[in-house]
UniProtKB/TrEMBL annotation:
Gene3D superfamilies (UniProt xref): 1.10.8.730, P-loop containing nucleotide triphosphate hydrolases (3.40.50.300)
InterPro entries referenced in this protein's UniProt entry, alphabetically: P-loop_NTPase, T4SS_component
GO molecular function, one term: ATP binding
Signal peptide coordinates: none
PANTHER family the record matches: AAA+ ATPASE DOMAIN-CONTAINING PROTEIN, UNCHARACTERIZED PROTEIN YJGR-RELATED
Protein name (database record): ATP-binding protein
Naturally occurring in which organism (per UniProt): Leifsonia shinshuensis
Alphabetic keyword roster: ATP-binding, Nucleotide-binding, Plasmid
Length: 551
C-alpha cells in the first residue's frame, strides 16, 4: 500500500526530510544531518534577509554548558569575517574571544579593576547623520538613561522607585547641560545627585547616589567613572571587549561591568555608514539579570536593525530569562519578545527540565524537541524562520586550538598553586612550567588512544587573564563570578554525564568511564573504549577529574 501525503503533512511528520540547506552564499558551518539530506550547510544571516527568508538578522544560540555554542559562534564569526563582515564582541566575560580576534587581525579592549583602561558608558558614539539635531539629542539621552537604569538596580539591590527615576532624570539632564569635561560621565551624574540644591531631589536620589558611588569612589572606581581612554577602531575587522579581569568580582558586579561595556560598544557600532557587523553577546544571560537590563537590551535590539547589525545572543537555557518578572508580566513579555524577534535560533542540547520551556519559547515542534534532547556536542537544531535544519558544526584543527575554552575554565577554584610565591596573595601561580607529558602511543583501530605513562598529573597553568585583580574581592556575602561559573559548569557536566551515558546506553560504565563520557567529546564511542586515565586524541581529555568524582 502506498501512502500519499501533501508536502505540508509530510514535512510535519518528517520535519527535516525536505531540507537541502540554504544555498551556497555565506560561511560554511558544517554538514547537515542525514535526516536533512547530509549536504553542506552554508549560512549568512544577511543573505537570508536579502532573500526574505527572515525579516531580521538577530540570532539566539542556546545550549547547555560545553555543548559547543561558543566554539560554533567563533567559527561563524571568523568565517563571516573572512567574507568581509566585521565582528564586535560586546560581552566576553571569560576572555575567550581574545584569541579568535587576534587570529583575525582584530583588536582587544581589556577592562579590569585598577586596569589601565577606562570606558565611559555614557559616550554618545558616532552621530547618525540621518537624524535631526533634536532626534539625535533625544536618542542619546534615552540610551544614557537606559544604561543608568540598567545598572542601578544591581548596585542598590532593588528596583528603582518612581521618585528615584525622576531624580535620576533631572540629574542626568543637568549633567549633560554642564559636563565637567568634554562629555558627560557617571561622576557628573553622581555629583548632580549629591550636590543638588534641591533638598527633595537630593533626598529622593540618595540611594541611587549611594549605588553609583560604588563606581565613582568604591570598588569599581576608575573603570567607568571618567572619560574613555580607549577608542573604538571602526575599521578593525574584529573587536573584543574583554572583561575577564572582573572574574574575581562578585557576580552582580560583573553583570554591571558587562552592561557598561556593552552599552559603550553598542553606541560605538551604531554607525549607519559602517556596513555589516555581527555583534556577539557571549554568556548573554549575565546582562539580562533583571527587568531593566532586559529593557535596555530589547531597546538596543530594536535599534540595531537600522544599522546593519546582526545581534547574536548566546545563553545556556531559555529559563535564564525566567528569572526576570512573573509569568504573564510585561517583563516576561519583553524577554519573550527578545526571543521571538530572533528568527534565527540555534538550539544545542538542552537539559530535560528546561525542554518544555524551550519548546514553548522558541515554538519548536515535538519532533524537534526529540532531536534537541539528545544532540551531541557541536550538533544543533538551526531553526531559520520556520525551517529546521540539523547541523553538525565542523572545526578545523587550527580553529579548535584557537577556540578552546576548556583549559581555561575547567579548573577554576580547584587550583592548587604549586610552589606559590609567598608574596603572592592571589592564590594563582605565576607561569608554572608545563612538563612535557610522556605518552605511550598505541593505535587501536579507528582512533588513536594514548595512555600516559605513570600518573603524572598535567600541571594546570593558571590563565593569566583570569587572575583576580588585587583589591578586587567579592564581599563575604557575595558569590564571585568565577565561583558562579564553576557552579554552572559543574552542573552542566553532571547532566552531560547522564545524557551521554543514556545516549550510549553503557549500563556497564564505571565511574571513570562515565567521566570520560562527560568530557564533551563529540565522539562518545571513543571514550567508551577508553580505559580510565587514557587519552582521547579527539578532545584531549586524558584523565578523570578527581574533583568531579567527589562532587
Ligand atoms: N564542533 C565541535 N567540534 C569539536 N570540538 C568541539 C566542537 N564544539 C566544541 N568543541 C569542544 O568543546 C569545548 C567547549 O565548547 P564551548 O563552545 O566552549 O562550549 P559552550 O560555549 O557551549 O559552553 C571547546 O573548547 C572544544 O574543545
Ligand atoms: Mg561558551
Amino acid at each position: 500500500m502506498t501512502h500519499r501525503a501533501t508536502a505540508l503533512t509530510a514535512s510535519t511528520a518528517y520535519p527535516f526530510l525536505n531540507e537541502v540547506g540554504l544555498g551556497h552564499r555565506g560561511a560554511w558551518m558544517g554538514k547537515l544531518g542525514s535526516l536533512s539530506g547530509g549536504g553542506d550547510f552554508v549560512f549568512d544571516p544577511y543573505e537570508l534577509y536579502r532573500q526574505k527568508l527572515v525579516t531580521g538578522t538577530s540570532m539566539v544560540w542556546i545550549g547547555t554548558v560545553g555543548t559547543g555554542k561558543s566554539a560554533g559562534a567563533k567559527a561563524f564569526a571568523c568565517r563571516m569575517c573572512t567574507l568581509g563582515v566585521k565582528v564586535a564582541v560586546a560581552s566576553d566575560p571569560k576572555g575567550e574571544w581574545v584569541a579568535p580576534a587576534l587570529a583575525m587581525g582584530g583588536t582587544v579592549i581589556s577592562l579590569a579593576p585598577s586596569g589601565a583602561n577606562r570606558l565611559n558608558p555614557l559616550d554618545e558614539g558616532p552621530r547618525d547623520s540621518r537624524l535631526s539635531d533634536d532626534e539625535w539629542v533625544a536618542l542619546v539621552l534615552s540610551r544614557r538613561r537606559l544604561t543608568l537604569t540598567a545598572i542601578i538596580p544591581s548596585l542598590i539591590h532593588r528596583d528603582i522607585s518612581p521618585r528615584e527615576h525622576t531624580a535620576l532624570d533631572v540629574a542626568l539632564v543637568a549633567a549633560i547641560a554642564a559636563p565637567a569635561g568634554e562629555t558627560v560621565t557617571i561622576t557628573d551624574v553622581y555629583k548632580q545627585l549629591t550636590d543638588t540644591k534641591d533638598d527633595q531631589a537630593r533626598e529622593d536620589g540618595a540611594d541611587i547616589a549611594h549605588g553609583l558611588r560604588r563606581l565613582v569612589h568604591g570598588d569599581l572606581s576608575g573603570v567607568f567613572d571618567g572619560e574613555s581612554t580607549v577608542k573604538f577602531d571602526a575599521d578593525s575587522p574584529f573587536v573584543v571587549m574583554d572583561t575577564s579581569g572582573f572574574m574575581g568580582a562578585s557576580a552582580t558586579l560583573l553583570s554591571v561591568a558587562t552592561t557598561c561595556v556593552a552599552a559603550w560598544l553598542e553606541a560605538a557600532v551604531m554607525d549607519p555608514a559602517a556596513g555589516k557587523r555581527i555583534v556577539i553577546y557571549d554568556e548573554g544571560w549575565r546582562m539580562l539579570r533583571d527587568e531593566q537590563m532586559l529593557l535596555r537590551m530589547s531597546e538596543q535590539w530594536k535599534l540595531a536593525r537600522q544599522y546593519g547589525l546582526c545581534n547574536l545572543l548566546i545563553m545556556h537555557r531559555i529559563t535564564d530569562l525566567d528569572m526576570v518578572g512573573n509569568a504573564g508580566s510585561a517583563t516576561r513579555a519583553l524577554a519573550q519578545g527578545l526571543l521571538t524577534d530572533a528568527e534565527i535560533r540555534i538550539v544545542y542540547r538542552q537539559e530535560e527540565d528546561v525542554l518544555p520551556a524551550t519548546k514553548e519559547a522558541l515554538g519548536l515542534t515535538d519532533a524537534e524537541v526529540r532531536e534537541v534532547r539528545s544532540l551531541a556536542q557541536g550538533v544543533g537544531l538551526w531553526k531559520i524562520g520556520k525551517r529546521p535544519f540539523i547541523v553538525r558544526n565542523y572545526l578545523t584543527e587550527d580553529e579548535l586550538e584557537t577556540f578552546k575554552t576548556s583549559d581555561r575554565f575547567e579548573e577554576i577554584g580547584s587550583v592548587t598553586p604549586a610552589a606559590a610565591d609567598p608574596t603572592d596573595t592571589t592564590g594563582w601561580t605565576a607561569d608554572p612550567v608545563e612538563e612535557e607529558p610522556n605518552w605511550d602511543i598505541e593505535a587501536t583501530g579507528r582512533h588513536r588512544i594514548e595512555t600516559p605513562t605513570a600518573a603524572a598529573p598535567r600541571p594546570f597553568v593558571a590563565p593569566p587573564l583570569l587572575k583576580p585583580a588585587t583589591g578586587w574581592e567579592a564581599a563575604a556575602d557575595e558569590v564571585s563570578a568565577a565561583e558562579e561559573y564553576r557552579e554552572i559548569e559543574l552542573t552542566g557536566r553532571r547532566s552531560e554525564i547522564i545524557a551521554a551515558a543514556n545516549r550510549a546506553k553503557h549500563a556497564d560504565l564505571t565511574d571513570d568511564s562515565f567521566l570520560q563520557l562527560a568530557t564533551n567529546c563529540i565522539s562518545p564511542e571513543i571514550h567508551s573504549q577508553t580505559t580510565s586515565g587514557a587519552f582521547c586524541t579527539q578532545c584531549g581529555v586524558f584523565r578523570p577529574d578527581e574533583a568531579l568524582i567527589a562532587s
